[in-house]
Amino acid sequence: MHLHRRIKIQLAIFAVVALFFGAVMVFGYMDLPAKFFGISRYTVTLQLRQAGGLYPTGNVTYRGTEIGRVESVRLTPTGGVEAVLSLNSGIDIPSDLKAEVHSQSAIGEQYVELLPHNDSATPLKDGDVIAAKDTFVPPDINSLLGAANTGLEAIPQDNLKTAIEEAYTAVGGLGPEISRVVKGSTALAIDARKNLDSLTTLIDQWQPVVGSQIDTSDSIQAWASHLATVTSQLQTEDRSVAGFIDDGGPAAAEVRQLFERLQPTLPIVLANLVSIGEVAVTYQPSIEQLLVLLPQGVASLQGIAAANVDTKQDYKGAYLSFNLNLNLPPVCSTGFLPAQQRRAPNFEDYPNRAPGDLYCRTPQDSPFNVRGARNLPCETIPGKRAPTVKLCESDENFVPLNDGYNWKVDPNATLSGQGIPDLAPGASPAPAAAPGVPAPDPAAAPSDPPPPPIAVAHYDPATGSYVGPDGHVYTQTDLAQTAPNERTWQSMLTPPNAN
Questions:
Q1: What angle do CA 349, 352, 356 make, to 5 degrees?
Q2: 339 DSSP 8-state letter
């Protein structure tokens, strides 16, 4: 058969077009070389707990772009599911990833989405396996519909109309408010999208927070129990709480008026309290010690009356003991003025105080005057005790005089150089020099009256007479040698006769 030349040209053009589109279909659409020979593709096995509706030829996406297809879905001997993914070569997908099965639409069309955890991880290669712990399968839609149907069936049909009417009553007329809620939710979602990395980091690092809550579950339960107790108590005392709320406003107004009336003087009082607070801070250890010892002291005072508790005594009081323990231990005289310079107790004038620091200078552990100045605690140096602030602030410690015994050599240890006043009769007292401080000029000191007469008198046992500090002569005959042997209590109370 002879064909015209034009027909031959048309047949050649048709063959070329058919061959071209056939190649496009084979290589571009059907991808037969990759399907039959694996050219420019590699396979990865995806382990799943269940298929979740995934089927062969399903899409595989990475960052929202299709990179392959599901080649096959099969059961495993262990009861799981394996899906073989055929992925395009030339796209580096991090191996540290999570594979999730999702639905393209409400009717299905499941696909696999690859979500990398770390972009710097090594890329997937042919034969890699994505473990089941790194996969996610959505719940079965049939189970969700069944649960929803069960929930709807639980609603009584007779009351369904009432529920709908009540729901309409609850949200009726709230269109603007619901619209604001929807707009706010949309804005929240947009902001969450902008801060997606921070939210992802928060979710990834949520485990330590949850772990701490689990570790403190007992404390949380106790707190919830206490809160329930408080709320139940408030419910029980509802009337009192309501009264407090009602009366709280007027009471607050009265308090405000009180502060307004005190406004001229209250700032002054508060300013003075600042000074008191500074003193309290300085004496904080002493205040703490007082607060510690005060309950014990009160208990001791209360224990005085415990002796006649549950007895038949009409008087419920404290037992008294008249054992005064006089001169036990003896009076401390070390560190004070010598005996010849001490004033008589019957003098009624009030001369100037003798200069220098006068206090008992026996050792701090001596039984003499245990509560004396030498045992005062130093406020700024805990554990140290000294009689003066200067000695407290220095590096020196308290040193007793004459080892604390006033009968050794010098009765008042004035020879030790520690500044104990030792005034001769008729001399003016001068300030005592502290250790390391030069003594003041005696000429600059003010002149004081002469010291009082001696308080020690010579007694004549033969006549029973003596000269008193005031210069008068007195007679105490019952102390003389001629005194009667027996004395009555009346004679002991009779004052001596003056000549």
A1: 140
A2: G
